[in-house]
């Protein structure tokens, strides 16, 4: 295990606070990973930052590794649901590399749209079974001077365990130092 905090999801709607928090806090090329517990296949939301224009959270289901046997089913699920998507192609053979959908981070509907994308992808991995996924975050956070107004959900086990303790300790020391 790489030390990142992993959260189990029992429904697609449970991903919304993670998308809202981590989507705003991640720096460029950071990713929010959804892993299916039974197949090991992963879908990701990758952060793309731009100087001019809104930040984008790009949903990707790759046609590689554990996702390769399921790629056609995921693509069919998106087509059946009439969800617009884009296929990234490989350079050499022009085969499908990944199924992608771009979401604007500042949009109020982004968390709900992300939940729908997760539901489609994870549902296609195990048809007929209830939704199950594991979510975690990889990558750097934005500098504290550029911090968004959204509360950060802890991304590492150390932060997850020590967050409440550190917050309480900070309040006590703040009161003592202020007099």
Keywords for this structure?
179 residues, 32% helix, seven-stranded antiparallel sheet, 4 helices, 7 strands, alpha+beta
Could you provide a short overview of the structure?
With 179 residues, this protein is an alpha+beta fold. 32% of the residues lie in helices and 23% in strands. It has helices spanning 16-25, 71-80, 110-125, 157-178, and strands spanning 7-9, 31-35, 42-48, 56-62, 86-89, 96-104, 133-138.
Please, could you describe this protein's structure?
The model has no long low-confidence stretch (mean pLDDT 89). The radius of gyration is 18 Å and the shape is globular. The protein has a seven-stranded antiparallel β-sheet with strand order 1-7-2-3-4-6-5, with helices on one face. It is 32% helix and 23% strand. The relative contact order is 0.24. The protein has one domain. It is built from four helices and seven strands; from the N terminus they run E-H-E-E-E-H-E-E-H-E-H. The chain is of the alpha+beta class and 179 residues long. Helix 1 packs across helix 3 and helix 2 crosses helix 3.
